[in-house]
Amino acid sequence: MEGERVMSSGRWVGVVGGLAAMSVVAACGGSPTKDPAPLVFGTENALQGPPGTLPSPEQQAGDQAVRAVSAYFQELLAIEKDPSVDLARLDRISGQPNTGKLRFDFEELRSTGVVAGGTVDVIATSVLEVKAPKDEYGTPIPGTATASLRVCVDRSEYDRKNRDGVSVLPSDHLDAELSKPSMENPAWPDPSGWRVVWDQIMDKSTACDAP
Question: What was the pLDDT predicted at 172?
Answer without folding.
Answer: 84
